[in-house]
Structures
1.
Amino acid sequence: MRSSLATYLGIFASVLWIGCSGPKVIEPVPNTSTDSVSSVDVVEHFTQGSGIYVRENCANCHGEAGEGTKRLGPPLRNLGEHWDRARLETFLLDPGKVEAEDQRLDELKSSYWGRMTAYPLAPEELSALIDYLFSL
Ligand code: HEC
């Protein structure tokens, strides 16, 4: 399981690496490896995801490493239990769409003071952020 996930991420990160021509927010980690699909690419993908998490202030409500805060936002652990990629994308782009039909989120909302707002991220940033979230 772990190794197939790592392979998937490796391929994904390298496709992203090749296809990514837009401005980079996070300075890439220098690639000192001679492998074509290297673990450095995967690390960079996660670095980008965690960088977006910090840049967008997710940590203010959800904690530095997704452990949650007492009042503002729930922990972001084991998200795979409740989310698939597509639904999580929709949620981050437009939380109201998903919240309206999800009783669990509705209950979470009443337990915390924070509110999710829309995060209109570019597809490649959204993808890196979601990989990071699933890794927490
Ligand atoms: C102002 C506080 C606040 C900020 C900032 C915030 N969130 Fe949230 N988040 C919440 C609250 C409160 C909930 C509970 C459900 C709801 O309100 O929709 C939540 C729910 C979530 C969930 C679903 C959790 C679950 O148990 O299924 C995810 C995933 C999530 N947030 C990710 C993020 C990410 C990623 C960012 C930054 C891009 C972010 N949040 C920014 C407050 C916040």
Note: The chain has one domain: 2-19+38-135.
2.
Amino acid sequence: MAVRRLAPDAVQPKSFAFTPQTEAWLVEQVRKYPVGRQASAVIPLLWRVQKDCGNWLPQKAIEAVAERLAMPYIRVFEVATFYTMFNLEPVGKFYIQMCGTTPCQLRGSDAVKKVLERRIGAPQHVTDDGLFSWLEVECLGACCNAPMVQINDDYYEDLTEENFDKLLDDLAAGREVRTGSQQGRTSSEPTDNVQTLQDPGLYDGSRVGAWKKRFEEEAIRKAAEEKAKEDEAKAEAASAAKEAAVEPKPGKPDSGRATESPVADAPAQRAAAGERPVDPGARVTASEEGSRKTVDAQAVAEEEEVASRLATLPKDASAEDKANAVGERPAGLDAPRGGTADDLKKILGIGPANEKKLNGLGIWHFDQIAAWERPQIRWVGTYLAFPGRIDRENWVEQARALADGNTPS
Ligand code: FES
């Protein structure tokens, strides 16, 4: 594999900013991962940014991804330079990846390569009209229809020198082209003298629905079984409660206990009956679960409100204008108290870049962050361009623990 380096400075843009659509998409992606694991979103985010940048990744874009995910630049550069799905230099409008692995080579990829060299030139060269560039890659997993190329997101298979030449002519002229086999195959059925697999249902997509339906039916059956079990458990609990509510009759072995408090004696009664004691922690956990869901719902509602307010602002609104539209700027200090700032990087989620930005706002100490309330959290989250993350990473709680001299949990 060739050494993969960033494009030379001469072609690197001086700045990069996420589009509003990517901003909104990013919030959803990061939410898929547990708090503190947002780095897991690095590949999808790089991929999305590459699409936004004309199918390649400028250095500033890679750095912006690193800052957004609170990752050191080097870790994101490692990912971008390792995977050949990321282009580190500008590519043509039609970026062609030609498979040169054995099955494709045996089926004629050399002829395809000759067309590319004749029409475009050397690998990675972009034609003067900006339309085409190409690269030889390893197997793209469509060997059954070899030889093949991938152009942007689509596969073109069963290529010959003639049909590939025509395909490039059509693309250059803006004519509609057919993806997949260029010899009329629907998938990878035999090209002639078809003796088997003649059931049209194999090719018309109808079996896709059948497959999906089977899973849906299975899910419905399982849900019904769960519901029946739940109903049965509820009925048993109700009948047990009813029995317990009936006053014991005189003459029965426990009649002497009728005047005693059933609540106070409940554990003893359960123990006498050989039942497991009720675990008070179980009730707390359920209530905690409920309140967590409420907090999550509030967070989602607030993020939606922030997004709708931001949508009313002009596209070129500054970070400060955006933040002012959704919250209240936290009070800052001119300089750290006593000339020494706290190490804000001890808060999980704050890296060197964000610490610098916070210092720029006059935030130098843990107790300043610990004092933030909703308006300040919204303001800072929007200013730093990662709405919701301060909550997800519990910056305020972490700051409170650190201000009290503890280690955040
Ligand atoms: S060898 Fe070319 S797609 Fe597999």
Note: Residues 105 and 265 are 83 Å apart (CA to CA).
3.
Amino acid sequence: MASPYVDDFLPEALQFRPSVPLVDIGANLTHDSFDRDLDAVVQRAQAAQVSTMIVTGTDIAHAEQAVELAKRYPGLYATAGTHPHDASQWSDEVARRMASLHALPEVVAVGECGLDFNRNFSTPQEQEKAFEAQLALAAESGLPLFLHERDAGPRMRDILQAWRDDISQAVVHCFTADRDTLFGYLDLDLHIGLTGWICDERRGHHLRPLVGEIPLNRLMVETDCPYLLPRNLPAKLKGRRHEPALLPWIVRELAECLGISDAELGMATAATAQQFFRIDTER
Ligand SMILES: [Zn+2]
């Protein structure tokens, strides 16, 4: 049978084709590393059964680009928010433009937004202000939230607790924190997004015993590409850019941690994502 892959960019050992369609809830496809070959990237994802991708919008310009991609490619959807790194740019004008993006049919979540006290590219005060303003936008629009948190678990939890009754659903994407933080989020009835961080023997293996603590109907999967290329891929890629076609490898790793089949995990996480983002798969 002819390979469904459009090119030989992925070595054969990296051409996983699971039996069920997957949803990548965090793909930074507006990153300039995808400028040259985005058609091929999307086709490889579809060949790998990654049929739905939520394109992360991290500021106005990238959210607008994400919307354009969602218009161009079936199966792509967009989020619109201001990343905590860029929180210093938040203004009433940004809030107004975000609100109009949130009204578009291609936009399925508010975010990426949240708190990142790891690098503090914006001050914690600026981050909290932009975050709360976006919680207000989520409350107004009824859209779910796509959240980023790094080294800010306790503060994030306090803020979310205060807003919990006003917002609908929220996913903490690329969860990498500890057990207490995880249980705090689950207590608030949040969803958790896991990436290839779990594949990193230097810094991700603490997550492995935690995976089983996340109820399957609260778990979603993502590449966070082009970042976070899994460190244990069975073959070398040209370059270090991660892409949605490699999501099935992450699903395989997670399924192994959970002691269930790839198909069961793929099906559960895809169903959760469709319900969470209210995605009509027929669009
Ligand atoms: Zn993030």
Note: Residues 112, 148, 173-174 surround zinc ion (CB under 6 Å).
4.
Amino acid sequence: MAEIYTPGHGIVTDSLIMHGIVKLYDVRKVERVGERFKLMGSFETPDSGTLSLLEEELRIYSKHPEVLSSSSVLGKVTDSNVNVSVTPKWLGKLSDALTEMEGDITDVYTVDHKDKLKEGRKGKQEYLLYLPLSFVYGKFSQSDYSVTAKDYSVCGHCFALSNIGLIYGTAVVRYSGKDKTSVTLMTIIPDEEMDRADLLLAQRFVQGKSVSLYTELTLKSVVLYVLSVGETLFSFGEHSPQVLVWRLERSGNFMRSLQPMALRLGGVLKKVAEIKADYPYFTNIVLKLSRSEDGAVVLDRLADIILFNGDPYPALRQLSLFLRKNKDEVGELTVKDLPNFAKILTKQ
Ligand SMILES: [Zn+2]
């Protein structure tokens, strides 16, 4: 079994590259090494089905750009992007980068890959990491609230793999408001280590999840939303993974990315699954709350209880007020049911 390392472009990019490699190669195990990952498996031949599907969609897009929104895989790239004007260039570069993905990557991802290929800020490579793929982004990247020029360049492998990781390894929650757009991305990564079955489970869980909302949710609420909506009942092996969530915002020409948040998933998943088992309308409550600003405030409090064992009473008080304001009904929940719902929430 061969061993390779993600290059060390930061936790977000490395998580995406790791998921890209898991999607394309026979990865047996992934270990966390700080903000990088060590992957064990066979890296000789990439999965041709995944590559040809991407190439096919890129070919169609180059002739008919309008199909992008309905495209099954490339749509995820557009959904994640707050700066729509770069889309043609981005997808053009993805086409170029995919031509480099034919062969063996065992000798590509050695521990010194990044230095060897002179990647990074002021790097010597031809592919720029766009904002959703990293925290640094051309002239729009921002530190300490001042906009500075920081081109972060990587090789074709890093670019192709981080895109594939974005498509197959993240959930995307997009908010479009009047003056602001934001995109929150979420991925599941090992806290210590994960085996192949768990890694594929993590990808299956997030990959189809790309939603657009008209209310902006907090990072915590996005995690609760993604965990609650759709399939929840699954559990990971002996090591609890982490969920990594990060956000990009745009208002006018100003763009920024927020610090990512990481939290352990094990206990949280179990809790959400138990709540759903005891209260089958839980998903409806989450959906309903996510549709209004008042509701989003309540959802944030619920996320506090479920993700961080926060005090349940402020959330329940807010929920009760919300219920009274909304004709006594939130996704089948009524004021009368509230004590029962409280019992379920505080059971664990
Ligand atoms: Zn590279």
Note: The first strand starts at residue 2 and ends at 5.
